[in-house]
Amino acid sequence: MELLSLENQLSQNAYPGRGIVIGKSADGKYAVTAYFIMGRSENSRNRVFVEDGEGIRTKAYDPAKLSDPSLIIYAPVRILGNKTIVTNGDQTDTIYEGMDRQQTFEQTLRTREFEPDAPNYTPRISGIMHIENGTYNYAMSILKSSDGNPGSCSRYTFAYEHPADGEGRFIHTYMGDGNPLPSFEGEPKRVKIEGSIDGFTSRVWGSLNEENKVSLFVRFIRLSDGSYETRIINKNQ
Q: What are the chain's domains?
């Protein structure tokens, strides 16, 4: 699989929707993750990321304009011991609670499906990062309707052990804009992870469509001791 430019993947797609990037820094010292949200409606665009303990949650920027919180207010990032969970919906809590009961990442998601937002049936995308004693592995999942059929759910899990320096995987909800929105297809894209946390954050944010981007979260986790740095950018400020 070709090693792609993350910036090109973002700048060439006006509406990738919500996206998760997980990988490893070029210097090999950090596990890296990014999560972004975009929006076309006023309700979707009326959001910000705020810190919530070691994780984050979404919050209405203007509570008076919040018309339906059901699929837009959730905790995208939660921490369970040495595991970092990143998702595009409230399945973050499903994974956290299931893995706390010793279930596997894949087992926890057996109880969930794509979002009930006809006619798009937005995929649920999720990631789990595991860092222990300097070792690092991660997995990603997508739950999607079978070619837009709400009666059939396709489940895919991708696991990555000993990830290479300067590489990551990128999965997002939509192949592009449309009505209905076309769901992501195929394996998570293999992308370059370059630069410091500030440079990486700036390039990702700058590559997202100006009209549709809403918020971005980036975290670099030091493999040697699990300490981390976080960056959050919100269009609404």
A: 6-234 (3.60.20.20)
